[in-house]
Write a sequence for this structure.
């Protein structure tokens, strides 16, 4: 009797009321979306406490997953960009924890950099003091535990991001940057660091060196807007006019890094292409030829034929070469110095020619070896004698002679010079990649641990004596501590240092004993001279920036700015063992490498990722870490852009409160002066642009779970988000799914036909249809094809304008398809904008989803009956089982393999729709039904943990917290996707029983593909003469088996041919389907 009452829900309500916030099952029409705040307040502390406690419990799988997100600069306040990257990484980490992995998900602070110095200059504070204060503020924001305490935590969403705070690091602490210095010293020991007088990009306003990536397409500084000058720096008593720089010889690893990208191309996608373009083609040999009579200068020679160097008698340089005299107007002319051919030991001249000299002749870095046939006139004019006997050297001889610094045939003076310089190259490398200039003339950065000894030589500080502190820069070496006499280098390892504006005084401290406790390293003073120069810089800089932006907008040209920081090449290693004072990390922890998933901005693909890989390869070569590649998989994250209003005439950024729409709703104007035209675009959020989002208001309005859903659904992780415009996107998808059946068949066909004819990629509809996986999703395939056409037919731009300009009940105008017009008319009349840029229909999308899942859970709880009163139906069980396997596989595939969190959310919505069609009594009492409901809630917690925790406790009060549950797995007899990838192009993804293919070897998989699932496309490819090579496969049990291969010849041309083959296959399939329908209709 008691059991029957329990199953009927009589006692259920009382017990659940004690453990949950809401009274389950619902006795009235309660919407869980209206109770979000109370759920979050109740469940947040419980979930975080359990997360911290379970770290000591062994994981189900004896495997780790290292999830690394880009660490924040401590600016003092977390913004929506932080929200996006950490929500993505947190959802990924939660998924792997549910799958039984031991997850490493650390957090730290990128605390060196120019903004701290700007704050010191503008506010008269110590940069370290400013940085430490901001770290404390942001740490409180990340670790906040009270939702309502906005004063303590202005971004409470971050409190549900499950970081490993025991691994926290800060790059400005000596305990951290001593290992940055340690890596630099090891590079120096292995001949990869040299000091040379290099031509650098100089900002004349900020008086600092710029990296190439910090200059826009017009040659202007990203910060000041001034035109960057090419010059050599040498230090004098008053300013920097020509000083040598520390450089790291990254080209030595270029070819290996390029080859490594080929292996990673499938996981990295376009990131591999970006970095490959950054490295360039690696088909030349590099020789560094010292300039005789100068210190630390050389000419970087790149040649295709390595044997040319053995008979090189003169060099030909173009006028754009750094060594050329920029004031010289008559060409050709000989430079007033000679260079040393390190292979032959001969001194050879360098001749400068005009840029139009022999235009068909190949130059690399504006340099080549002179040829006595093609350059006969040059040789005769400058009396260069052709040797009578040609030197015959093997490739090994040349490379050995170039690599060895001293040769017995060289004079003693040259031998000493070679020893100081450190080799001549002789290795195969990139055509364009140059050495990495790491010297920065500023204070707030990692001090370069180099000592100039009394005899003029430079030596690295002893490893066991590190770190070299900021107070040591440019000072005499403490011989007792470092056991060496000399002077420390004055530069730092960072982006740049604005030395003209700052005056630093060394504080007298006993740094030998107290360097770990000495937090106040610098004593900063700001003078009147500094303020005057700052004002001058600001006036010149702002004008240049606005002018540059206006021109960029006019020509639709945008360039990405990068920021180099040497501290970033180390942090992913130090996270593994952050408290180790004797090693970079213990060998046991270094075995946790590589990083399994890196979540970071797509703008880091070329620079940061390249240097991180370079250092990882080097550390692997010297036996420090076990793997060369530091990152296995990537989730490139696009930026979040806000709607920006700009005065067209001046380029001035305006506040949204200062603008209004004209009477005809066609243009935007200034409220105070309606004649002033205003332009509206989406740009990266910034205070100066007045386009930011108030996170406090956003979280107050939406709550934590809805904000997480909004961020994850707005776009695929690698795509940028136009905040506000993406509200429409989410609502559009929801409305389209809900209203698809309202359109008649004729309208549907018309939309599809117009979509096919107007889209640039004719294969988009066919591709969507091909990617379907099961027979029971025919209707879903049509819906996806329809949505694909809608999205391509109505691009985001016009949609965004309609979103703002259409008042209630105004008709939608324009030449658009009838079905699309009907849809947008429906949407526009429902739209209502709020202060935070939300839209009502957007909230309805997520709120309805959560409300439907909660209502279904409540109905299931109500519907539990005694086992004798329930009868199973094999057909319904089979339907539920098929639905369960399909959606569990697809959600997991989206999160783990494809990294499409937004698509995973749409799959959960589809799962909910499918379960809602089944009687809740059957769901509650059948094994298949209750398994499906449980799995839906377990998967939901990745996106909104608080609501999922409430639902789970209501459904299963005796099963513990939802965090203790396992991610659902598909059945042993279920289907998995059998993919074929040819040069990165999908050749189809049919579904096959997992038992048939998951245990097959590569040879057997290819035979099956050729005979069964992929026979059509492989036959056509063979008939078109395309040769396949590099056969391989990858698999994830329960998800997919993927066959991959490359093609011989031109990849772009082969991809076009494969695309045409796919179109033919799709056309033939449509014809076959028509014939089948006709036969069926005839019967």
């Amino acid at each position: 009797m008691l059991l029957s009452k329990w199953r009927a829900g009589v006692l259920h309500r009382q017990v659940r009321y004690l453990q949950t916030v809401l009274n389950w099952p619902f006795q009235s029409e309660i919407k869980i979306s209206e109770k979000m705040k109370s759920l979050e307040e109740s469940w947040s502390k419980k979930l975080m406490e359990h997360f911290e406690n379970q770290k000591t419990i062994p994981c189900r799988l004896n495997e780790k997953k290292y999830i690394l997100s880009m660490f924040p600069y401590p600016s003092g306040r977390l913004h929506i960009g932080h929200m996006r990257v950490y929500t993505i990484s947190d959802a990924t980490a939660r998924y792997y924890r549910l799958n039984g992995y031991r997850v490493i998900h650390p957090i730290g602070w990128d605390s060196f950099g120019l903004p701290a110095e700007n704050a010191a200059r503008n506010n008269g504070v110590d940069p370290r003091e400013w940085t430490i204060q901001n770290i404390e503020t942001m740490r409180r924001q990340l670790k906040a535990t009270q939702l309502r305490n906005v004063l303590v935590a202005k971004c409470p969403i971050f409190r549900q991001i499950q970081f490993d705070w025991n691994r926290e690091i800060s790059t400005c602490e000596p305990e951290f940057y001593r290992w940055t210095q340690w890596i630099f010293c090891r590079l120096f020991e292995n001949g990869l660091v040299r000091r040379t007088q290099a031509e650098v990009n100089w900002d004349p306003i900020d008086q600092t060196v710029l990296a190439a990536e910090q200059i826009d397409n017009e040659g202007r500084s990203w910060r000041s807007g001034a035109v960057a000058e090419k010059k050599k720096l040498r230090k004098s008593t008053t300013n920097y006019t020509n000083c040598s720089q520390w450089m790291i010889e990254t080209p030595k690893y270029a070819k290996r890094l390029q080859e490594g990208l080929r292996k990673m191309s499938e996981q990295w996608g376009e990131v591999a292409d970006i970095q490959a373009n950054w490295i360039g083609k690696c088909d030349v040999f590099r020789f560094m030829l010292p300039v005789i009579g100068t210190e630390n200068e050389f000419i970087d020679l790149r040649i295709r034929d390595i044997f040319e160097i053995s008979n090189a008698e003169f060099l030909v340089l173009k006028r754009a070469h750094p060594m050329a005299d920029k004031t010289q107007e008559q060409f050709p002319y000989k430079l007033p110095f000679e260079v040393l051919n390190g292979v032959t030991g001969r001194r050879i001249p360098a001749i400068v020619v005009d840029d139009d000299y022999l235009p068909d002749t190949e130059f690399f870095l504006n340099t080549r070896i002179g040829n006595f046939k093609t350059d006969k006139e040059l040789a005769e004019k400058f009396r260069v004698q052709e040797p009578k006997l040609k030197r015959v050297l093997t490739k090994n001889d040349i490379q050995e002679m170039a690599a060895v610094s001293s040769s017995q045939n060289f004079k003693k003076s040259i031998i000493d010079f070679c020893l100081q310089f450190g080799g001549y190259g002789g290795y195969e490398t990139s055509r364009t990649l140059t050495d990495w200039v790491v010297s920065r003339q500023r204070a707030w950065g990692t001090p370069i641990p180099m000592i100039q000894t009394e005899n003029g030589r430079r030596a690295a500080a002893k490893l066991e004596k590190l770190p070299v502190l900021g107070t040591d820069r440019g000072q005499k070496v403490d011989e007792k501590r470092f056991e060496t006499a000399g002077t420390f280098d004055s530069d730092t390892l960072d982006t740049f240092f604005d030395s003209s504006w700052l005056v630093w005084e060394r504080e007298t401290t006993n740094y030998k004993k107290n360097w770990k406790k000495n937090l106040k390293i610098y004593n900063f003073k700001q003078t009147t001279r500094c303020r005057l120069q700052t004002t001058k810089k600001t006036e010149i800089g702002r004008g240049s920036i606005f002018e540059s932006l206006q021109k960029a907008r006019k020509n639709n040209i945008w360039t990405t700015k990068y920021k180099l920081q040497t501290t970033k090449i180390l942090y992913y290693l130090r996270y593994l063992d952050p408290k180790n004072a004797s090693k970079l990390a213990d060998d046991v922890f270094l075995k946790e490498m590589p990083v399994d998933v890196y979540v970071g901005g797509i703008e880091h693909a070329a620079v940061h990722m390249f240097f991180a890989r370079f250092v990882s390869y080097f550390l692997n070569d010297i036996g420090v870490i076990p793997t060369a590649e530091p990152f296995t998989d990537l989730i490139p994250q696009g930026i979040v852009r806000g709607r920006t209003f700009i005065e067209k005439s001046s380029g001035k950024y305006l506040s949204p409160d200062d603008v209004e729409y004209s009477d005809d709703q066609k243009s935007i104007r200034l409220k105070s002066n309606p004649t002033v035209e205003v332009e509206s675009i989406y740009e990266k959020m910034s205070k100066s642009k007045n386009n930011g989002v108030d996170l406090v208001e956003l979280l107050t309005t939406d709550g934590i779970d809805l904000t997480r859903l909004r961020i994850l659904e707005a776009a695929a992780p690698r795509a940028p988000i136009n905040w506000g415009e993406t509200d429409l996107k989410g609502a559009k998808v929801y409305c389209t799914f809900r209203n698809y059946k309202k359109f008649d068949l004729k309208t549907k066909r018309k939309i599809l036909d117009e979509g096919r004819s107007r889209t640039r990629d004719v294969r988009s509809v066919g591709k969507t249809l091909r990617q379907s996986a099961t027979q029971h999703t025919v209707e879903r395939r049509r819906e996806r094809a329809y949505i694909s056409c809608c999205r391509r037919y109505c691009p985001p731009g016009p949609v965004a304008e309609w979103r703002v300009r259409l008042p209630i009940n105004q008709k939608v105008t324009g030449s658009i398809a009838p079905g699309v017009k009907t849809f947008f008319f429906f949407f526009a009349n429902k739209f209502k904008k709020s202060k935070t840029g939300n839209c009502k229909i957007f909230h309805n999308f997520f709120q309805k989803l959560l409300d439907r899942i909660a209502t279904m859970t409540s109905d299931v709880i109500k519907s539990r009956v005694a086992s004798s009163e329930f009868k199973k139906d094999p057909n319904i069980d089979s339907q539920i089982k098929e639905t369960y396997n399909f959606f569990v596989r697809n959600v997991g595939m989206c999160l783990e393999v494809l990294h499409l969190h937004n698509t995973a959310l749409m799959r959960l919505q589809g799962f909910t729709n499918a379960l809602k069609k089944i009687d809740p009594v059957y769901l509650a009492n059948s094994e298949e039904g209750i398994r499906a409901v449980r799995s839906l809630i377990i998967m939901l917690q990745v996106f909104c943990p608080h609501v999922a925790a409430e639902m789970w406790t209501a459904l299963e009060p005796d099963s513990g917290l939802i965090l203790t549950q396992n991610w659902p797995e598909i059945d042993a007899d279920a289907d998995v996707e059998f993919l074929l990838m040819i040069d990165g192009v999908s050749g189809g993804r049919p579904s096959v029983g997992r038992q048939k293919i998951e245990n097959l070897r590569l040879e057997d998989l290819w035979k099956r593909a050729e005979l069964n699932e992929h026979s059509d496309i492989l036959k056509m490819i063979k008939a078109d003469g395309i040769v396949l090579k590099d056969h391989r496969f990858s698999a994830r049990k329960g998800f997919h088996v993927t066959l991959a291969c490359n093609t011989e010849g031109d990849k772009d041309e082969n991809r076009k041919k494969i695309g045409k083959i796919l179109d033919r296959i799709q056309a033939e399939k449509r014809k076959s389907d028509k014939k089948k329908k006709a036969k069926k209709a005839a019967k």
Notes: The chain has 35 helices and 38 strands.
